[in-house]
Amino acid sequence: TTVKVGNRTCTITVTKPEAGTGTSSFYYKTGDMQPNDTERVRWFLLINNNKEWVANTVTVEDDIQGGQTLDMSSFDITVSGYRNERFVGENALTEFHTTFPNSVITATDNHISVRLDQYDASQNTVNIAYKTKITDFDQKEFANNSKIWYQILYKDQVSGQESNHQVANINANGGVDGSRYTSFTVKKIWNDKENQDGKRPKTITVQLYANDQKVNDKTIE
């Protein structure tokens, strides 16, 4: 931006700040994948971590990037501080709005909008957790980008501050790159002296497990 005062001009460069990534920040976004749930990614929006008084509405716009889609039933919203509430499951957004009628959280497959009223946000930390379903299992990482608008009481307005996060895909990046699918061969080896007693079964059943849970049986001859 060029500013002219009298006969003098100067150029001012404005750099848009990015939100912090620690609990001391007013807002940050993070996420991860759990080894026992490799088909979904967990995401967290953490707002007003220090339970500040705010001067006006707090707004967050959260964009879910490619290779994933929002699981609408996965919301887990926690309000802690002056108020202590929790809303879980597919009715979480409706129940949140019923309890805090001046605030609203809306969501589509790839976008979440948060509007927190000044008095609902003040002295409260709001943690919005949700999961996305993976649609591209070979994608190396998943990204979500967000922006926040807020003003702590008696401090400057913050507009469009970014907090973005990337999560490595453990399906593709678990030490090697490649497909999520694994093939294997099962070979029967009998230790019965060529069935000398005539007790060898005609078929055997192989049980297939994933994450300690049986997912299928396969009978082979």
UniProtKB/TrEMBL annotation:
InterPro entries: Adhesion_dom_sf, Collagen-bd_Cna-like_B-typ_dom, Collagen-bd_dom. Keywords: Collagen. One of its GO terms (molecular function) is collagen binding. Pfam families: Cna_B (PF05738), Collagen_bind (PF05737). Residues 26-147 form the Collagen binding domain. Residues 185-218 form the CNA-B domain. This is Putative collagen adhesin se73.9. It comes from Streptococcus equi. The lineage of its organism: Bacteria, Bacillati, Bacillota, Bacilli, Lactobacillales.
